[in-house]
Amino acid sequence: MTHNINHLAIVVPNLDEALHFWRDALGLNLARTEENPDEKVNIAFVEAGSSHIELLQPTDPESGIARYMEKRGAGMHHVCIEVEDIEATMQRLREHNIELINDTPKTRPTDQIRYAFIHPRSTNGVLVELYELP
Amino acid sequence: MTHNINHLAIVVPNLDEALHFWRDALGLNLARTEENPDEKVNIAFVEAGSSHIELLQPTDPESGIARYMEKRGAGMHHVCIEVEDIEATMQRLREHNIELINDTPKTRPTDQIRYAFIHPRSTNGVLVELYELP
Lengths: 134, 134
Prior knowledge:
alpha+beta, 2 domains, 3 helices, homodimer, 2,3-Dihydroxybiphenyl 1,2-Dioxygenase, domain 1, eight-stranded mixed sheet, 8 strands
């Protein structure tokens, strides 16, 4: 599906408490949890149709995501949109004077997904991630 | 699809400027626009896979949505999740001590969608809407 919402990321103080709502009360399936020591977050992915809700719990108060939560409060953090060709998309964004956080796509070693972030200054305050699936 | 993200709503100061990003630069299709004088917003729906991005521009500075934007800034406002049986879902939420904004589902006269909102106090600051499609 074109431009599928791959995931909506939500920063939370506590994964168990967040899963009480999303899984136990609302009834979404927990797909998996993972620890990401590089980004200093623990993550739970719950299934929402062809998308996931990605719950992010900071594990280090000095990390970027912890400081975001300290400043803005818990809540929606970013939305990730799938694109067919991330480099062509980034080129078109630049031509429309949209500011990118990453100059070139990064590649996740675990699953070969290529990704890049768009700056919230260009999107009315919404941090948008792009995914090109392998 | 179970628990599909029906839409992600984003409050913006100006629809044309928001469409410059979502439609012209990122390439999402504009599905439709509508004026909602009751809620005092103009709305543009852009397609994102099986979901929509719902762009909300307040039309009256005294409205709830305008005051939200004044206080919190532009950005993601709520996420809407589709459920099979909204009353059963609301009952299960209550049993898990989740606070609802609406005691009973409302029905939109235009399309017969039944909907209700969950209070952000119970969801780490995320305003969640439920849809039961007709």
